[in-house]
């Protein structure tokens, strides 16, 4: 840890050793694996293995495709849990070997992923001594501290507000305070992937993270949590020099920084070359904060053809009534079978126009609206809904739920999509334009940052060294 660093950024003690307060973001399905996280730890930081449907390998070292042969969703869900445990264990072991005893290895799980608890317990059981901590967000993971205590690992909750952290602390975390190694503040307007934007916040009005993080520290202090427990700033972090007033700032206490987007463009990053190439061409505004995810959460992704088609699908939408009522005075005569769909005259004209463009199939949504799609799109939506393998605890797209009676009780929502399919596809080489490409809102900076000019792709070590200079 003898390297010089920006503004005297100091190592912290974590997992029994000194590490740089630089954390690799643990990005979903196969976008962060053993190669990237092991290299990040080897460079002296905290690498994060994604334990969300991670890849396993056969005897020749080839990735085992996650194919679901079971007939029922519940059986496929059990298969998904087995894949999840096997893959994450393999990734952790490989990352631990690559780290060479430097830095630390965390794992990242989404609390709202299907089977989150058995997967997390299964992974921790088989990787004792290799994992320093568990980061967890996407939902309110009250049981995270209890599981961490059972396996004696640190836990790092991911929150987007002081209010969310306080709810977790009051209900559960105060009982296991000694293992809460840090609190990750994930900026809901800047971070890539799923985020914790609440109904009280406006997706179109980003808020400055400083007062929000200060409020988080004030809340932690009020509950007796030491300033030595770092708050990890996640989302929008590119150059440390832009965060100079956060370092050694008595108002904020100990601060660490998480990098999710920048590590995507490294030699060790496991994402396919097409994804890496696409990152170099992004402009400001090319990353969209949207609500199409079947989780129900907001999330941020590049506005690929796939995302634009979801936007267009939702725009071809009309509300309806089952009876003639109010302004719903005419019967819909395109896209639906039967006569009990009453709409406004204007919406009837719009629907006929869409049908004339080839969007001849009407699909009902849970919100008493109908969207219009092509026959090919309808067939794809229905097949994906039928093939559901239960990858979420609650899925709006397929109406799956991973407990009780295994259904959300709501109509499956055709405005959404199968997130497991598209994330597996993009991570394993399918065309980026036709899939969901997660990225943070600062991804346009790849094109502007001279570090990446002339098509330069750094190793993880080169990236960490660069970050430590302030750039």
Descriptive notes:
The protein is of the alpha/beta class and 471 residues long. It folds into 2 domains: 6-282 and 445-468, TIM Barrel, CATH 3.20.20; 305-434, no CATH class. 30% of the residues lie in helices and 15% in strands. The protein has 13 helices and 18 strands. The strands form 5 sheets. The chain has an 8-stranded parallel beta sheet with strand order 3-11-10-8-7-6-5-4. A 3-stranded antiparallel beta sheet has the order 9-13-12, with no helix packed on it. β4, α2 and β5 form a beta-alpha-beta unit. The relative contact order is 0.14.
Summarize the SSE layout with pairings:
Layout: E1 12-14, E2 17-19, E3 22-24, H1 34-42, E4 46-50, H2 73-99, E5 104-110, H3 116-126, E6 133-137, H4 144-151, E7 154-159, H5 162-171, E8 183-186, E9 193-195, H6 209-222, E10 231-234, E11 255-259, H7 273-279, E12 287-290, E13 298-302, H8 305-315, E14 317-319, E15 330-331, E16 342-343, H9 345-356, E17 361-364, E18 369-373, H10 375-386, H11 419-427, H12 445-448, H13 460-468
Parallel strand pairs: 3-11, 4-5, 5-6, 6-7, 7-8, 8-10, 10-11
Antiparallel strand pairs: 1-2, 9-13, 12-13, 14-18, 15-16, 17-18
Give a concise summary:
The chain is α/β, with parallel strands linked by helices.
What are the main properties of this structure?
18 strands; 13 helices; 2 domains; alpha/beta; 471 residues; 3-stranded antiparallel β-sheet; TIM Barrel; 8-stranded parallel β-sheet
């Amino acid at each position: 840890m003898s390297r010089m660093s920006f503004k005297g950024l100091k190592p912290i003690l974590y997992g029994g050793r000194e590490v740089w307060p630089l954390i690799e973001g643990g990005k979903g399905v196969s976008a962060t694996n053993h190669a990237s996280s092991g290299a990040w730890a080897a460079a002296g930081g905290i690498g994060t293995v994604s334990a969300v449907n991670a890849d396993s390998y056969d005897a020749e070292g080839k990735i085992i495709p996650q194919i679901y042969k079971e007939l029922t969703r519940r059986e496929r869900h059990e298969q998904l849990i087995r894949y999840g445990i096997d893959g994450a264990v393999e990734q952790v072991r490989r990352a631990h070997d690559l780290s060479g005893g430097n830095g630390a290895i965390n794992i990242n799980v989404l609390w709202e992923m299907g089977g989150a608890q058995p997967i997390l317990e299964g992974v921790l059981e088989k990787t004792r001594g290799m994992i320093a901590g568990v980061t967890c967000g996407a939902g309110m993971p009250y049981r995270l501290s209890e599981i961490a205590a059972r396996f004696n690992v640190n836990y790092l909750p991911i929150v987007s507000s002081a209010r969310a952290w306080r709810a977790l602390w009051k209900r559960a975390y105060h009982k296991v305070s000694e293992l809460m190694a840090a609190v990750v503040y994930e900026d809901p307007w800047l971070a890539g992937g799923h985020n914790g934007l609440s109904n009280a916040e406006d997706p179109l009005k980003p808020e400055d993270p400083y007062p929000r993080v200060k409020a988080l520290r004030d809340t932690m202090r009020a509950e007796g949590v030491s300033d030595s427990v770092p708050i990890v700033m996640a989302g929008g972090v590119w150059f440390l020099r832009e965060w100079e007033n956060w370092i050694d700032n008595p108002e904020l206490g100990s601060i660490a920084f998480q990098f999710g987007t920048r590590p995507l463009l490294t030699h060790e990053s496991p994402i396919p070359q097409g994804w890496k190439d696409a990152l170099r061409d992004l402009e400001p505004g090319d990353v969209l904060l949207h609500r199409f995810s079947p989780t129900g959460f907001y999330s941020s992704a590049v506005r690929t053809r796939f995302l634009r088609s979801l936007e267009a699908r939702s725009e071809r939408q009309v509300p309806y009534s089952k009876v003639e009522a109010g302004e719903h005075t005419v019967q819909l005569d395109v896209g639906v079978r039967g006569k009990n769909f009453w709409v406004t005259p204007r919406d009837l004209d719009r629907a006929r126009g869409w049908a004339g463009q080839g969007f001849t199939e009407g699909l009902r949504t849970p919100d008493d609206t109908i969207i219009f799609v092509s026959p090919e799109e309808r067939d794809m939506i229905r097949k994906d809904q039928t093939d559901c393998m239960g990858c979420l605890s609650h899925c709006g797209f397929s109406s799956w739920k991973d407990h009780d009676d295994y259904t959300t009780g709501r109509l499956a929502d055709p405005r959404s999509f199968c997130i497991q399919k598209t994330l597996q596809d993009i991570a394993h080489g399918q065309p980026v334009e036709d899939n969901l490409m997660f990225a943070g809102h600062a991804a346009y900076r790849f094109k502007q940052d001279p570090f990446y000019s002339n098509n330069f792709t750094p190793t993880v070590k080169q990236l960490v060294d660069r970050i430590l200079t302030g750039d």
